[in-house]
Known about the structure:
The protein has 264 residues and is an alpha/beta fold. It is built from 8 helices and 7 strands.
Amino acid sequence: MTDLDLTGRSALVTGGAQGLGEGMARALAGAGARVVVADIQDELGAQVAASLGEGHGFVHLDTTDDAEWERAVGEAVDLLGGLDVVVNNAGVEITSLIVDLDADAVRKQLEVNLLGTALGIKHAFRTMRPGGAAGNGGTVINVASVAATIAFPGISVYSATKSGVDRLTRVAAMEGGKLGYGVRVNCIYPGLVPTAMGAGLANDVASLGLYGSPEEAVGAVIDLTPSGRLGEVSDMADAVVFLASDASRFVNGAGLPVDGGMGM
């Protein structure tokens, strides 16, 4: 078995019905893991899970709901026979200038991006720690953003929530270690990827007058990126496979930039 071989591992990926989450679910399955796709988009999520083949599955999950987390993780354990990896990927971005912030939009980003991730860590710990339903330790991978490390206009609240994901990750890693849970906790900072969310951001910042066009906004991101391109879904998915694998066995409490150098 190679260090990146996940054969025998079981994983749950939130927001797995499309975009980065779908790519992460496919990459984990491709590395040998059995995967449960978790999402509020039932039809799309079930389609992704079915396309992964035999042994994978789908669970409905609103990540902001504590009781739904408990149910979804229980279903995942029953389906997979355990749980070794939880990827907290589900997130939302609502573009706004600070002077125009809408309180409900702020709350939604706080609840999905920050509360949802915190609850994911909670239920991963309870399931993976000794005496839990799985009980063999494991790894939690949180999806932050390059927005946590740069000052990009129009995404103040999103940036704040992703900075919070970074802090959650580090405190969780310390608690998991000190309490003997046997669970590593890390996060990745994706750069801009031309998914539906990424394209929406480019359109939104242009509509706010921050850039002359969506293309200009994308060009500005590329200009800030030493690698000279946007990210790809596979870039982020491969990083998740690494953090889920034994190749990262002594990586804990870390934030891994996958942004082409944009946030350095």
